[in-house]
# Entry
Amino acid sequence: PYAFGLKQFGEGSDYDIAALPLNTSIAKALAELEDRKDTVSTLRRAEIWLRNAFVFPQAYAAYEQAQRRSPKDPLVLQTLGERAMYLGFPEVAIPALEGVGRGVEIPLVAAYNDIQDTPSALKWLKRALKENPYDDRALRWLVHFAQNDESAAQDLLMTSLSYKKAGDGSLPSSRAVVL
# Structure
C-alpha cells in the first residue's frame, strides 16, 4: 500500500546480508579473529558484527580498519559501500564505492539518488548504460528519472539508444524502453 508514496525514491534494493555460517558462537568467532591483523580477517570480523550480531558501531570500526589496511582493495571498498547503503548512509557509501572502479555504477546511482544529487546519479547511470545498454537495473533507473526529470532522462535515453545501435545495429523489440 505504500508503493505510491515511495515510488519517488526509486526501487528497493536487494542486500545479501544473511548471517554468515559459523561453526561456533558469535563470541568465539570474533575472539578467534581478534588478534589477526590481516585485511581479510578484519573484514570478516566486520561482517560477523553486522550480519550475525547486527552491532553496527563495532562493525563500522572494523570496516574502517580494513579500509585503512587496504585502502584500494575493491572488495573492502565495495563491502563497506554496500553495508553503508543498507544502513542508510549514502554519504559514507559514495566515497567507498567510487574507489572501486567499474562494476558499482548502479549502487552509485542509488546512493546519489538517496542524497538527491540527480546530476551525479545521471552521470553514473550514463556510465552504466554505456557499459551495458541492456542492464535491467539501469533501465529501471532510467524510467525512474524520466518520471521525475523528463528532460535529463530523455537526453540519457537518446544516449542509451545510441549505445545499443552502435553495438549490433538493431534494437530487440522485446527490450524496448517505454517512457
The chain has a mean pLDDT of 85. The CA atoms of residues 112 and 118 lie 7 Å apart.
